[in-house]
Design a protein that fits this description.
By secondary structure, the protein is α+β, with helices and mostly antiparallel strands. Helices cover 31% and strands 19% of the residues. The protein binds zinc ion (ZN) (2 copies).
Length: 150
């Protein structure tokens, strides 16, 4: 089943919910803010086409990568590179390549930052595009699920 991590609009905490067609709202465990959800048949089939939080259709994918571990490894490599003349960065690259390449991808809504884990159509979604992000977030443009054409 597809799972969502919604960013609470009030306190920015993560709210974890299952894509359950019967659910029409999720409550933040930190500030009790209630987020309305609109699940449809696609979500019930584990397909992501519409964001149940903001109803947009624009998503991007990225590796499901724990940023805290990544940052810690990067700092460690930076410190070690003083003694290893940068070899630690090559090791870090290798670790990243072998370890994180195997991790699955997540889909993220450009507009509301909701994270989706496990949709079937994940690999049909494009990676992050800066121009799309800026136009959606700063100009409130709605691409309606079509990726930008250059
Ligand atoms: Zn909250
Ligand atoms: Zn959204």
């Amino acid at each position: 089943m597809m799972t969502l991590t919604i960013t609470c609009p009030e306190c920015k905490s993560g709210i974890h919910v299952y894509a359950n067609a019967a659910a029409d709202a999720a409550q933040c465990a930190v500030c009790n803010h209630v987020v309305d959800l609109k699940f449809d048949q696609n979500h019930a089939n584990n397909e992501l086409h519409d964001c149940p939080v903001c109803q947009r259709k624009d998503f991007y994918i990225q590796k499901d990568f724990n940023r805290k571990i990544g940052v810690a490894l990067f700092i460690l490599a930076s410190i070690l590179s003083i003694w290893t003349y940068g070899i630690s960065f090559i090791v870090l690259y290798a670790v990243d390549f072998f370890l994180f390449r195997k991790l699955s991808y997540i889909a993220i809504c450009y507009k509301c930052s909701t994270i989706f884990r496990g949709p079937k159509n994940l690999l049909q979604i494009q990676p992050f595009d800066h121009e799309m992000h800026d136009r959606i977030v700063y100009s409130d443009h709605d691409f309606k699920g079509k990726s930008i054409s250059h």
